[in-house]
Design a protein that fits this description.
Largest sheet: 9 strands, antiparallel
Distance between the termini: 49 Å
CATH topology of the largest domain: D-amino Acid Aminotransferase, Chain A, domain 1
CATH superfamily of the largest domain: ATP-grasp fold, B domain
Strand order of the largest sheet: 13-12-9-10-11-14-18-16-20
Number of strands: 20
CATH architecture of the largest domain: 2-Layer Sandwich
Number of domains: 3
Shape: globular
Number of helices: 15
CATH class of the largest domain: Alpha Beta
Strand content: 15-25%
Structural class: alpha+beta
Helix content: 25-40%
Radius of gyration: 23 Å
């Protein structure tokens, strides 16, 4: 245990129910903030110190009563119990209320600790964790339950992939990736046998970003269609959808690249929401999601929806921020309600077959450089040409002055991302069009030197990799980190103006966005206003209606 603190009764870290958060990184930090706000006592468990540094450096020890390094289930449980009995017994419950994963690396450890520490109603079956963590086992389980699944093979050699493709009549392109990695770590969009060979050369027996060794690689058919995200919260085997997002992508087979152009929150009351939700929740049932957040990626193909993958945790990156701003309630808040309020809000949402509607349009827009590459002479936002646009909330550049600006082949080589939010649909649309115009004319790319041939060498056809995953796409040589913030890319970014909060402008801090005074904890104020939202959702109001209601 890295610290063993005295527990003064006035310290807000030592009050209320005790919740263990395993790997409280990425958007798990939003869950931590909501749980603290609701008065929970929090203990952090780090599943491994072998994780990539971008995970480990996100830990905020001051948020927790204790931080424990995982060794074995039994030893870790003993350390936590000792801490409870020796330190917290006088001012907090003597038992663990729940154990929850804060990010992808912590999923399996969280479920193992749930089985020995937490209340059974806050648990999934640890014996079936691979259904929720291992991408091959996940698809195999769906197929066993007669649900649409990806054709796949789990292979130790490139030769095995080629044999599988021939036997199963699979044509190029295909996806090759680790079965237990995260983000776009080790993901390849392969168009030839040489690409497959390259993927195995680069990734086999390598330690991935989640600290696990890639003993085999997963080969899958490439799905064509429109990609969606379906985020949900589960409790006692029931599911509530908390966010739907749609991706817009650009495909460049000549360079093995898929560029994500934007991701946008979509209305849960409009087509194809019902189809996506019904399929996703059937998948959650099949995969044993009884409790917790889930982040599903679904391809809507010509023959219907097909799961790409689903994680037993909150969505990373900007997704949760986009959903919270677009709908008024974040997935982390619904999960916190389940943990600290026995799901009072969750039950009301379930009883009303709740479907949110948009209170504002929210988009994460990814910049693309298609003109030339070289050293960046001026800030991309020089003269405020990006941040001054009406729908822009935050711009996160990936390249600074003096840095190399490559041709955009994937998310790893994107110049940056822009978060857009506005109550008017057309304002967001016009802002996106203006950003694309700035790209196409080269106005935002002031480059001092340029290369005709792609440089550095990692942008050759064979080394560039892409994926059907909704996360950022990485090359085989230049790695990209999962975003460490809930407002876009990791690293620095800046706000043009104060980002929209859950409170509307002009309202005091004690007034919710529906104009009602908070009488309980912040999570519970959602319950008071739920009927208003449900009634409005049933009318399937347009964005114009929403603008009139909330502004």
């Amino acid at each position: 245990m890295s610290k063993n603190l005295a527990a003064p009764s006035h310290d807000p870290r030592y009050c209320g129910c005790v919740i263990v958060v395993v790997d409280p990184y990425s958007t798990g930090r939003s869950l931590v903030a909501s749980l603290k706000e609701a008065g929970a006592t929090l203990i952090a468990v780090q599943s491994s110190l072998q994780l990539a540094d971008f995970w480990l450096r996100q830990l905020e020890p001051a948020d927790f009563a204790a931080v424990v390094q995982f060794s074995t289930v039994e030893d870790t449980a003993r350390k936590i119990r000792n801490f409870l009995s020796n330190t917290l017994s006088a001012c907090a419950p003597s038992s663990i209320h729940a154990v929850v994963a804060g990010s992808e690396p912590g999923v399996v450890v969280a479920e193992q600790l749930q089985a020995v520490l937490g209340d059974p109603k806050f648990s999934n079956d640890a014996g079936t964790s691979s259904w929720r963590r291992h991408k091959f086992d996940q698809q195999a389980r769906l197929r066993d339950r007669n649900l649409r699944a990806i054709r796949q093979s789990y292979c130790a050699t490139a030769e095995e992939v080629r044999y599988w493709m021939e036997a199963a009549d699979i044509s190029f392109p295909i996806i090759v990736k680790p079965a237990c990695s995260g983000g776009t770590d080790g993901v390849y969009w392969c168009h030839s046998t040489a690409d497959i060979d390259h993927a195995f050369y680069q990734e086999l027996n390598k330690q991935n970003c989640n600290g696990e060794t890639n003993e085999k690689l997963l080969a899958q058919e490439f799905l064509r269609g429109t990609e969606f995200v379906v985020n949900s919260v589960s409790f006692k085997g029931r599911h509530v959808v908390t966010g739907l997002l749609r991706y817009k992508k650009h495909f460049d087979p000549a360079h093995n690249s898929i560029t994500y152009e934007s991701v946008e929150v979509i209305d849960a009351c409009e087509s194809p929401a019902n189809l996506l939700i019904a399929y996703m929740h059937a998948c959650l049932d099949a995969l044993g999601f009884h409790f917790g957040a889930s982040h599903g990626e679904v391809m809507l193909t010509e023959t219907g929806p097909c799961l790409i993958e689903v994680g037993a945790r909150l969505q990373g990156g900007a997704g949760p921020w986009l959903v919270q701003q677009a709908t008024g309630t974040g997935c982390h808040e619904v999960l916190a309600d389940v943990l600290v309020n026995e799901g009072k809000l969750f039950r009301q949402m379930l009883e009303r077959n709740f479907r949110y509607v948009l209170k504002r349009r929210c988009v994460e827009f990814d910049l693309r450089n298609t003109q030339k590459e070289g050293s960046l002479a001026k800030d991309l936002d020089h003269d405020g040409q990006i941040s001054s646009l009406p729908a822009v909330i935050k711009f996160s550049p990936a390249v600074n002055v003096g840095g190399w600006l490559p041709i955009t082949r994937d998310m790893a080589t994107s110049p940056g991302s822009v978060l857009l939010s506005h109550v008017r649909y057309d304002v967001v649309e016009e802002t996106q069009q203006r950003l694309r115009q700035l790209e196409s004319t080269g106005e935002i790319f002031d480059i001092t030197s340029e290369e005709v041939a792609l440089s550095p060498a990692c942008f050759s056809e064979k080394s560039v990799s892409s994926s059907t995953s909704s996360a950022s796409l990485s090359t085989s040589i230049i790695s990209t980190e999962p975003s460490s913030t809930s407002t876009g890319r990791g690293g620095t970014g800046y706000f043009r103006k104060k980002p929209p909060q859950l409170l509307d402008e002009g309202m005091d801090s004690e007034t919710s966005c529906f104009g009602k005074k908070n009488k309980t904890c912040p999570i519970m104020q959602r319950v008071e206003s739920l009927s208003t939202v449900a009634d409005f959702c049933s009318r399937k109001g347009s964005l114009a209606d929403v603008e009139g209601l909330f502004v």
